[in-house]
Amino acid sequence: MTPISLGLDTFGDVSLGPDGQTQPMDRVLREVMDQATLADEIGIDFIGLGEHHRPDFAISAPEIVLAAIAGRTQKIKLGTAVTVLSTDDPVRVFQRFSTLNALSNGRAEPI
Fold it and tell me: Which range of residues forms the domain containing residue 61?
């Protein structure tokens, strides 16, 4: 029987804090990293971060956030939920993910 794989994905949605104010982007990014660390600790298999360039999403450079997550985790696979190739050089996207794959000991999975 094939085991079930569980994963998470996020764009780093910017939400309101307890005071009713929009949370700062840096706080949202740290929370995403904390969530990924916890996911790794409890055995979640995959985390995907989507690239978005809007004020209501904090992740505009998923490879950088994934690299930070790679340094804090051991087993969780690291991938994208969205990569906007129409506004980027596909060769550079490949190179960035190849670097992430090397830094994470083979855990990078661009989608």
Answer: 8-109
- Domain total of the chain: 1
Q: What is the pLDDT of residues 28-45, one digit of tens each?
A: 999 999 999 999 999 999
Encoded tokens for 91: 């060769």
CA-to-CA distance for 10 and 63, rounded, in angstroms?
Answer: 13
In a domain, 104, yes or no: yes
2 in any annotated domain:
no
Pairing of strands 108-109, 46-50: unpaired
The two tokens of residue 57 are: 């999403």
Other Cβ atoms within 10 Å of 110 Cβ, number: 18
